[in-house]
Amino acid sequence: MSTLLENRYRDRSRAVWTLMMGLFLGGLFTELSERFLPDSVARSFLTYSVSASVGPLTLDVVAVAITVGPLALTINVLTLVGIGIVALVARSWI
């Protein structure tokens, strides 16, 4: 039974790492395309993004006050490509 729980934990952590690395790679692809691609329809399509944000979030306890945010997630085509590449690599290696 513990092996099943370990596999679930490993699958979740692998999915989180894949998502994080894919977002990073997609952000890198986006920055490179914004810098090096000429102004064109392809550049506009690849770098058009949709953003969602939450925040700022404030936790105020008597002794400690913490403010986090705003947290924003920006998704575009190149971000999805980055997530896909990392997922394929992670699946073949791990």
What does this structure look like?
By secondary structure, this protein is of the alpha+beta class. The chain has one domain. Helices cover 63% and strands 21% of the residues. The chain has three helices and four strands. It has helices at 2-36, 41-47, 77-93, and strands spanning 49-54, 57-60, 65-68, 71-76. A two-stranded antiparallel ribbon has the order 1-4. The protein has a two-stranded antiparallel ribbon with strand order 2-3. The radius of gyration is 18 Å and the shape is flat.
Q: What is the element layout, followed by pairings?
A:
Layout lengths: L1 H35 L4 H7 L1 E6 L2 E4 L4 E4 L2 E6 H17 L1
Antiparallel strand pairs: 1-4, 2-3
Helix pairs in contact: 1-3
The assembly state of the depicted protein chains is single chain
Strand content: 15-25%
Query: Which class best fits the helix and strand makeup?
Result: alpha+beta
Shape: flat
Count of strand segments? 4
Summarize the structure.
This protein is an alpha+beta fold and 94 residues long. The protein has three helices and four strands.
Name the descriptors:
alpha+beta, 94 residues, 3 helices, two-stranded antiparallel ribbon
